């Protein structure tokens, strides 16, 4: 598999519990039968992209997304549900991070926003758990766009083939692999643990 220097984590559905497709469908009032279609629509939503890039406010995001969904739900109700969307860390998330030997550079690459980033770092305690953080709302680009992956590669100063990227969304994995990274689709801590074991990163 080659030598890995950097373990690059997505957060949602990898280390952070978003509550599954039922919670997604409840918050966004969409059909949860096909999870992959649901997430593809999310990634291509103009309102989502603008908010995750830090270009619009939470209120503007809510209004834009509700209009895209042709929903008559109140903006206030939606905003509170959206803020509360991330449940917390999956059991064992911090323990898994601590298992990774210090020889590896641990980093985050997350599509996130002003409503969630503070909760993830402070309330869920991920501040200080990684060497590098790449948050879309601070970088101005979102996955699966190539620009944010180039930003990570350039900032870390590491060849892409020495980066292992763990993400729950296949579109993001495809983008990472296209640029030469090792990309693996992950759902939850135990899945991440197995992949890290297979790459001989943890015992």
Automatic annotation (TrEMBL):
Keywords: Hydrolase. One of its GO terms (molecular function) is hydrolase activity. Pfam families: Hydrolase. It comes from the Bacteria. PANTHER family: ALPHA-D-GLUCOSE 1-PHOSPHATE PHOSPHATASE, FLAVIN MONONUCLEOTIDE HYDROLASE 1, CHLOROPLATIC. This is HAD family hydrolase.
């Amino acid at each position: 598999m080659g030598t890995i220097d950097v373990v690059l984590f997505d957060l949602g559905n990898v280390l952070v519990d978003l509550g599954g497709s039922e919670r997604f469908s409840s918050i966004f009032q969409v059909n949860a039968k096909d999870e992959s279609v649901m997430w593809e629509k999310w990634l291509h939503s103009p309102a989502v992209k603008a908010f995750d890039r830090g270009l619009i406010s939470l209120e503007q995001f809510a209004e834009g997304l509700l209009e895209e969904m042709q929903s008559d739900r109140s903006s206030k109700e939606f905003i509170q549900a959206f803020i509360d969307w991330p449940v917390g860390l999956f059991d064992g998330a911090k323990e898994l991070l601590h298992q990774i030997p210090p020889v590896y550079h641990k980093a985050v690459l997350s599509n996130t926003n002003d409503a969630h980033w503070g909760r993830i770092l402070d309330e869920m305690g991920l501040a200080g758990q990684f060497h590098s953080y790449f948050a879309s709302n601070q970088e101005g680009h979102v996955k699966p766009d190539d620009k944010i992956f180039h930003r990570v590669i350039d900032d870390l100063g590491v060849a892409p083939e020495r980066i292992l990227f763990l993400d729950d969304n296949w579109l993001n994995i495809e983008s990472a692999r296209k640029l030469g990274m090792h990309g693996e689709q992950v759902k939850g801590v135990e899945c991440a643990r197995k992949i890290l074991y297979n790459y001989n990163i943890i015992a």
